[in-house]
Amino acid sequence: MLIGQVQALLELRWNHRIIQNHFKKKGIAISLSHISRIKNSKLGSTKNDSKPIKNGRQSKLKKSDLQRLEKMASKPDPPTQASISKALNVSQQVVSYQLKDTLKKKCHQKYKCHHLNERSVQIRRQRSWPLYKLLRKDRWRKFITTDEAWIYLSDTNSKSKVQYLSRDQNRRDLTPSTTVTHPKGVMVCMGISANGVTKPRFVQPRSKINSEYNIQKILKPFLKDDYCRLYPNGDAVFHQDYVPSHAYRVTQKFLTNH
């Protein structure tokens, strides 16, 4: 009986508050949420029983969309969850749930490695086997291998991208962030062997690393201090990579003569 009365008042376009006050005068207590449930229920609705058309994103995935999701997630370079949710017209939470619970997939960080072009791959294939034959059967103990690397300094008074403010400050008190073109760093050259390590040799800033610099600042100090110290009998093989400063004919000739 009460539901029918509420339905009749709703058909007259009475709002929920007026309906509540109307029944209150009759001594009948009815909550606003109850009126809303009558309005939205099939019993209190005068419209047909067809389901309303929902606009916006879905809360579940259809079988075809789930197959699309699995196909996108199986790629070596999958799109982001935000891109997937946009393509499937669902929320990112739905995509995350389906990946984890339905498809049983787990996100992992990729291993980092150097990119090699085709020429570099061919060169490494040609040189790896001869190098292995030189190193096998404990002959690696007579090798001294050197390399160069950049070491970047972390505390160089660079401009930070964040700033802490107290509660009585606002964003207008922030200091603008400036872009640092490149962090300060230094190049160092070192070597290792079965008998120990060489001394670190730092390359002077803005120096041109050519054959002359390599011979005078790296190779001569190495032969004078490290080579004789690590292998007093001189029975050792000096190994380095094939960067231009190492591959120059002048550099190769210097090493051959010494």
TrEMBL record:
<protein>
    <recommendedName>
        <fullName>Mariner Mos1 transposase</fullName>
    </recommendedName>
</protein>
<feature type="region of interest" description="Disordered">
    <location>
        <begin position="42"/>
        <end position="66"/>
    </location>
</feature>
<dbReference type="InterPro" id="IPR036397">
    <property type="entry name" value="RNaseH_sf"/>
</dbReference>
<dbReference type="GO" id="GO:0003676">
    <property type="term" value="F:nucleic acid binding"/>
</dbReference>
<dbReference type="InterPro" id="IPR052709">
    <property type="entry name" value="Transposase-MT_Hybrid"/>
</dbReference>
